[in-house]
Design goal:
Elements: H1 3-23, E1 27-34, E2 39-43, H2 47-68, E3 80-85, E4 88-94, E5 99-106, H3 111-125
Helix pairs in contact: 1-3
Pfam families: Robl_LC7 (PF03259)
Domain Roadblock/LAMTOR2: 14-105
Protein name: Roadblock/LC7 domain protein
């Protein structure tokens, strides 16, 4: 895939995240990432911050999947991680094949509303929020 096509796809996905960010007060950043930490789309943040969040999220989703695998009779996939830190919340939700939706929000965010809007977004546009595995042929 050419760099121009990849950039256009990223820009096309960014608008999808704006509705989530604007509909939940106290939302700071919204990022869609691939399972290997590549930022696919962003809203409310600059490219460097989005790339750092995506890379950190890849490690967190991998850790979550390892923990989920310990539950018997389950497929071991991570569905949702919520981390509360001093000053806010971090949400990470599975959002399609090999893709994840990540949100940073201030500490007075409505957690229930955030979870609901994230689920709604994933249900509506989940097919657009996927990142198929890369093959060796795609590596330059």
């Amino acid at each position: 895939m050419s760099e121009q096509v990849a950039t256009q796809q990223r820009l096309n996905m960014d608008w999808m995240l704006e509705e989530l960010a604007s509909s939940v007060p106290q939302t700071r950043n919204v990022v869609v990432l691939s399972s290997d930490g590549l930022c696919m789309a962003q809203c409310g943040t600059d490219t460097d911050t989005a790339d750092r969040l995506a890379a950190a999220c890849a490690g967190l989703q991998s850790l979550s999947a390892a923990i989920a695998a310990e539950f018997p009779h389950r497929d071991g996939r991570m569905k949702l991680v919520v981390v509360e830190v001093d000053g806010g919340f971090f949400y990470l939700m599975a959002a399609g094949a090999g893709a994840y939706l990540a949100v940073l929000a201030d500490d007075d965010v409505d957690a229930g509303l955030m979870g609901q809007r994230m689920r709604d977004l994933v249900a509506r546009i989940g097919q657009h929020l996927s990142s198929p595995p890369r093959s060796d042929r795609q590596i330059p």
